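Recall the central idea of this unit: under ordinary conditions, the amino acid sequence of a chain determines the structure it adopts. In this exercise we apply that idea directly, starting from the sequence alone.
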Amino acid sequence: MVTGETATEPLMQETGYTLGHLSVNVFFIISGFLIAQSLQRSKDLIEYFVARFLRLVPGLFVTAIVTAFVIGPFMSELGAAGYFSQLATWTYVPLTSSMLIDNGELPGLFANAPSAFEVNGSLWTLRWEAMAYVGLALLGSAGLLATRLRFGVFFGLFLAIYIAITMWTDLRETIGAVDHIMRFGLCFLLGTFAYVYRKKIPVTLLIGLPLVLLPVLLRETGVYQLALVLAMGYAVFWLAYVPNGLVRKFNGWGDFSYGIYIYGFPVKQVMISLFPQLDAATLMLIASPIILLLAIASFYLVERPSMRKRGELVSRIRKWKPLNAREQTASSPAE
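Accordingly, the structure predicted from this sequence is:
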């Protein structure tokens, strides 16, 4: 991100993927685990989708406001007057928070950054996250999450399709949507698999260390990405549950992951624009505490208060539901 060239990105030479790419994969793995838990605990799909909406949209809405009306006028090369005279300034918030656009531009913002005019390059994945929520609900409605066996068979079928498409076709290279479905589907469903089989999967270094070595051995094969995702997924759950639960203790203060995700890119763009001489390590050192503070504020001021409105919003939606056929018949005048 510092130079705009992926070849110089952290971890690119070591893994073949950028730090951002790998972070998104981890995000989807964790999401698959937590969303499967949310679906199981929800009384119905109304409660499930309300929870998903409140988890994504309010924080995204505020991020868009901060970006457009706090960062924008100060960082745009057009100046405040020119910036606010552009229609794109005023449409950015509704288009971004509704996920109708992937990575909308703001007039003159970050024009001289290596990733020129990119305002929040991370947000494009949220649309795929939302689609994963819908997909999991469909799996649940079809009964494929009812037993470990059913989901295991489904996951095995997905893996077979994933391997076949990856190894024996060029669909992932030629059609972006296919690549995204395979990549995000693998990560999200792996997290779901971890939740469904959580009582059956041992979390130990005896399994973790061989899994970490697997991508090294398969680096030049068509299943390298699969091996890397499996290794990262297992490592994530090992870190969360084994070393005295340090990650969980940190999460006891609040779930700041979403805030880090939605504020990370624009904060780094600001830093790069202000201090173009920064190298990658210094950028991370300076930007990380700022991003974390914004994520903490997002959680306590926006995300958690919004989630606490879930019960009230669910009740209101249920009251709006159309009367069922029997109620409609009973309430209609006799002919």
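The first helix runs from residue 12 to 15.
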